[in-house]
Design goal:
InterPro entries: Bact_solute-bd_prot1, SBP. Pfam families: SBP_bac_1 (PF01547). Keywords: Signal. This is Sorbitol/mannitol transport system substrate-binding protein. The protein is α/β, with parallel strands linked by helices. The chain folds into 2 domains: 221 residues, D-Maltodextrin-Binding Protein, domain 2 (3-Layer(aba) Sandwich), CATH 3.40.190; 219 residues, Periplasmic binding protein-like II (D-Maltodextrin-Binding Protein, domain 2, 3-Layer(aba) Sandwich). 41% of the residues lie in helices and 13% in strands. It has 18 helices and 12 strands. The strands form 3 sheets. The protein has a 6-stranded mixed beta sheet with strand order 1-3-2-4-12-7. A 4-stranded mixed beta sheet has the order 9-10-8-11, with helices on both faces. Helix 2 links the parallel strand 2 and strand 3. The chain is globular, with a radius of gyration of 21 Å.
Length: 461
């Protein structure tokens, strides 16, 4: 029988590197009823039956899977004990479980960053052989960009559930009403000018929604991509610290001014989920964020702006504000249920699951961006006509090995695939949030972030 556990609070994000030195101070969150017993894992599925403990991020695509999970249980005989957490809290929980070898979960959703770093730490099972031997899964159908961010030496250590880049979403009906035009390839200055015009024309509407919630995977996803656009960054290829460079300062100052002047109310508490709600309920005119958001924006069951949204490329300045990301299934080496874990993953990331979502929930809710064949399904093509081509172009233009205006020491567009980044990105996100709240200047926030960066860079110089 499926059991669902949810948490609504947010912890302060701790990076993997930080966890390694602070585990003695860490304690579990919530009451025992919030999740399975530590170290328990699921029970061996063998030739059918048993159970799996699964930890998932609380994004819309995972919520859809939660509703369809009983179908898998009935087909496989495997019970799913599902825990769903907000993004920041999920990262804490998974990092602690995997880094300590607690074995609490059999399958966990991880991002592209964790896929790179945790594979290097030998925390995850190599899934390449299982993927190749499962003919129904069709591993060759996975998009190269998504395989690239989840592989080591061409072997997959995590399987994408959905993939994304970033683009600009805007209310084309509002733009048409007021004679405004969104360029196909807007600059950040274009976004600012359009926001000012919307503020005057629609004073009750938020001109632009931008993540402000501190976290390396929240506000720093947007800020990190903007650093690339303005010619800034975290480090260059020689590990020179670029965090307080003029280019980085310009990018962060532009972000702070844009959100202060034209962003959502309470921006420092608004992450992806909050901006999705604001935009899909018709309260914002523009939103720069993940391409995967379009699935929910165009879903009649969750959005009031279906058919009213236009899509443009990610804003740019010196370069493009792109990113590549995947939410994926990883299997910690501590699990005793590898075969059952693969059976679940093969179902959740398989072609038949996409077909099931399309037929039962709607084709805009398919967890796309991971399979080439998805874009050949006629029903999907019709339903996603408004954004499909823009999404594909965004993914193809965002190369994690070539973001920004100069070479970097490690892959990543909006993040840097080094163990120290989770902690550095979290601290820098907190500093940027403080600047956004008016608690300190951008210069002071970046100077503090620079010092955190020096600590990280010294380990590599």
């Amino acid at each position: 029988m499926q059991r669902i556990h949810r948490r609504k609070s947010f912890w302060t994000t701790l990076g993997v590197a930080a966890l390694a030195t602070t585990l003695a101070a860490c304690s579990g969150a919530g009451s025992p009823s919030d999740t399975a017993s530590p170290g328990a894992g699921g029970t061996d599925g063998g030739d059918g039956g048993g159970s799996l403990n699964i930890l998932m991020v609380g994004n819309p695509q995972m919520t859809d899977l939660e509703g369809l999970a009983p179908d898998f249980e009935e087909e496989s005989g495997i019970d799913l004990n599902i825990t769903i957490l907000p993004e920041n809290e999920l990262r804490d929980r998974v990092a602690q479980d995997v880094s300590t070898g607690a074995g609490q979960y059999d399958v966990v959703t991880i991002g592209a960053y964790e896929g790179s770093v945790w594979t290097a730490n030998d925390w995850l099972h190599n899934l390449q052989d299982m993927a190749e031997q499962d003919e129904d899964f069709d591993v060759d159908d996975l998009m190269p960009a998504m395989k690239g961010v989840l592989s080591k030496d061409d072997d997959l250590y995590a399987i994408p559930f959905y993939g994304e880049s970033a683009f600009t979403m805007y209310r084309k009906d509002i733009f048409d009403e007021h004679g405004l035009t969104m360029p196909d390839e807007p600059t950040w200055e274009d976004i600012e000018q359009l926001a000012a015009q919307i503020k005057e024309a629609e004073p009750e509407m938020t001109p632009v929604c931008m993540r402000g919630l501190p976290g390396w995977g929240e506000n720093m996803a947007v800020v990190g991509s903007m650093l690339n656009a303005f010619g800034g960054g975290f480090f260059n290829a020689d590990w020179e610290n670029m965090i307080n460079s003029p280019e980085t300062t310009e990018a962060v100052q532009f972000y702070v001014d844009l959100v202060k002047n034209y962003g959502e109310e309470g921006a420092t508490n608004a992450g992806f989920t909050e901006c999705l709600n604001i935009f899909s309920q018709g309260e914002a005119a523009m939103w720069f964020d993940a391409t995967s958001a379009a699935n929910s924006v165009e879903s009649p069951t969750s959005s009031t702006v279906v058919g009213k949204v236009g899509y443009a490329d990610a804003p740019r300045q010196e370069a493009r504000s792109g990113w590549v990301w995947a939410w994926a299934w990883g299997v910690p080496k501590t699990t005793k249920n590898l075969d059952a874990a693969w059976e679940f993953i093969s179902w959740a990331s398989g072609k038949e699951y996409e077909q099931k979502v399309g037929e039962e929930l709607g084709w805009t809710r398919v967890p796309d961006g991971k399979r080439l064949s998805t874009f050949e399904i006629p029903e999907y093509q019709e339903a996603t006509e408004a954004y499909r081509d823009k999404m594909l172009a965004a993914i193809e233009q965002s190369d994690p090995n070539d973001c920004g205006t100069y070479p970097r020491p490690a892959p990543g567009c909006q993040y840097l695939a080094i163990p120290e980044f989770a902690d550095l990105g979290t601290r820098m996100g907190q500093e940027v949030s403080a600047a956004l709240a008016g608690q300190k200047s951008v210069e002071d926030a970046l100077q503090a972030s620079y010092e955190y960066g020096e600590t990280a860079a010294e380990r590599h110089r």
